[in-house]
Write a structure and sequence with these properties.
Keywords: Kelch repeat, Repeat
Helix content: 55-70%
CATH topology of one domain: Serine Threonine Protein Phosphatase 5, Tetratricopeptide repeat
Number of strands: 3
Pfam families: BACK (PF07707), BTB (PF00651)
Structural class: mainly alpha
Number of helices: 15
Order of helices and strands: HEEHHHHEHHHHHHHHHH
Strand order of the largest sheet: 2-1-3
Organism: Drosophila rhopaloa
CATH class of one domain: Mainly Alpha
Protein name: Kelch-like protein 10
């Protein structure tokens, strides 16, 4: 039987390697399960109002929460629950300030949206749908919950259609969501023919944004006639104020690619 220089068997070395590999793989596979179980347990404690040490109040409804959980994923709640605001205002500091901040009042947010925010803080997931995604994103951004903002923007990116891409593009620009803005704009350029035929929000774009779309080199259309027809529709939407832009818009239309008539 062959032995290694250290008097060990090659089979033992191979077995040890395989065993280590199995143990590492098992640890990786168990990690998410353990984490999910812990998160679910914490959420169950919250729902049963066990070990909760703070409240978040919106409107007439209050939610019992654990401060450590909310602070772990939100810069806003971390500042609130640790007494940062009280200390910065010259009020009470230290433990006294923290004790005074056991109840946080947040105006202008519905109970349904706050419930989703708290659910995400505990479970790292929540119900995002077409009806709540915009309000949920605004709330998540307000409380500094970056992970939830990312999930909302990912949802909007996945649900882009010719009917909603213009409104999502405007929403993204207003909220300074650069990545979502670029994705929605690129979607509009790629599916321009469908957008021009089915989208109504494009008629409300200002002249600068509208010209930027029709003159973009990435605009995907086989016939420039679609571009010119959209320009006419855009002008007809408010002819008194928009007819002055006809010459400017014609500079963005590739007249040489139009069908001769």
């Amino acid at each position: 039987m062959e032995l290694n220089s250290d008097d060990s068997h090659p089979e033992d070395e191979l077995l040890g390697t395989d065993l280590n590999t199995v143990l590492k793989a098992s640890a990786k596979s168990l990690a998410p399960a353990v984490s999910d179980e812990a998160l679910n347990t914490l959420n169950e404690l919250r729902e049963a109002n066990l070990l909760c040490d703070a409240q978040i109040s919106v409107g007439e409804q209050a939610f019992n929460v654990h401060r450590a959980i909310m602070c772990s994923c939100s810069s806003y709640f971390r500042a609130q629950f640790t007494g940062f605001y009280a200390a910065s205002c010259g009020c009470r500091t230290g433990a006294a300030a923290v004790e005074e901040n056991r109840v946080i009042y947040i105006p202008g947010i519905s109970a349904c949206i706050m419930n989703c925010v708290i659910q995400f803080a505990y479970l790292r997931k929540t119900n995002i749908c077409e009806d709540n995604v915009h309000e949920l994103l605004i709330c998540a951004d307000y409380v500094g919950m970056v992970g939830l903002v990312k999930q909302c923007t990912n949802y909007l990116s996945r649900t882009l259609t010719p009917e909603n891409c213009v409104s999502i593009m405007g929403f993204a620009r207003f909220r300074f969501l650069e990545d979502l803005y670029l994705k929605s704009r690129n979607y509009m350029l790629r599916y321009f023919t469908e957008v021009a035929a089915r989208n109504t929000d494009i008629m409300d774009m200002n002249v600068k944004d509208f010209y930027g779309i029709i003159s973009d080199d990435e605009l995907n259309t086989r016939e420039e006639d679609h571009v010119w027809k959209l320009c006419v529709k855009w002008i007809d939407r408010n002819p008194e104020s928009r007819k002055q832009h006809v010459a400017h818009l014609m500079n963005g239309v590739r007249l040489g690619l139009m069908t001769p008539k």
